[in-house]
């Protein structure tokens, strides 16, 4: 059955970016280290398997406008880099961007759809596109928090990097009390991959 999965990399002290996020520094200044399990080469076999499996299972992606502005910016995604980083971009899923207003121009227009009536509508449209594959909410933190707070997430995946960045963008600022059931822990030298089932009111889905 298709799931809605919030999936994000995080430092040990709870930040998904370092300080100083802008179009030049999409992950903050020094924030690339939070994503070392993806970005550093050679990638470990464990990390390669986690990345490839998630890419294969994803039928659609939901993201916020700030993240979109970075990935569609001059230092963002390209013909060879996108969702799943260096996975086969010809097979990449469509991305649904939660925004108040669509941008005037879109550099990678074939990859993005724009949703102006909130996260629930974006999830609904992404589900329709994904079919029996998963919908992945990839960030940023605010959109993941909104989805958790609204009870839209079935599964939370945290790629916990073994570093302390000391500041930046925190996860869970809006989510409120949330009960999770730990389902899987996979370790590599650069990350601990944690999978949790999100318990909704009335029990697990």
TrEMBL record:
Extract one GO molecular function annotation from the record: 5-amino-6-(5-phosphoribosylamino)uracil reductase activity
Q: Where is the signal peptide?
A: none
Q: Could you tell me which SUPFAM superfamilies the record lists for this protein?
A: Dihydrofolate reductase-like
Show where the Bacterial bifunctional deaminase-reductase C-terminal domain sits. 3-186
Q: Any one Gene Ontology biological process term?
A: riboflavin biosynthetic process
> What's the name of the protein?
Dihydrofolate reductase
């Amino acid at each position: 059955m298709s799931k809605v999965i919030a999936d994000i990399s995080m430092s040990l002290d709870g930040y998904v970016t370092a300080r100083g996020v802008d179009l030049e520094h999409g992950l903050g200044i020094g924030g690339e280290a939070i994503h070392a399990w993806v970005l550093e080469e050679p990638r470990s076999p464990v990390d390669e398997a986690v990345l490839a499996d998630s890419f294969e299972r994803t039928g659609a992606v939901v993201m916020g406008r700030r993240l979109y502005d970075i990935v569609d910016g001059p230092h963002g995604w390209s013909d060879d880099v996108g969702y799943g980083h260096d996975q086969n971009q010809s097979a990449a899923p469509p991305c649904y961007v939660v925004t108040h207003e669509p941008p005037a121009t879109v550099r990678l227009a074939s990859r993005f759809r724009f949703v102006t009536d909130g996260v629930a509508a974006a999830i609904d449209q992404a589900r329709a596109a994904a079919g029996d594959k998963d919908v992945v909410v990839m960030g940023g933190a605010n959109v993941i928090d909104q989805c958790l707070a609204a009870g839209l997430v079935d599964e939370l995946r945290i790629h916990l990097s073994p570093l302390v960045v000391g500041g930046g963008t925190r996860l869970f600022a809006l989510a409120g009390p949330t009960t999770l059931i730990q389902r899987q822990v996979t370790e590599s030298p650069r990350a601990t991959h944690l999978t949790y089932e999100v318990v909704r009111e009335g029990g697990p889905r």
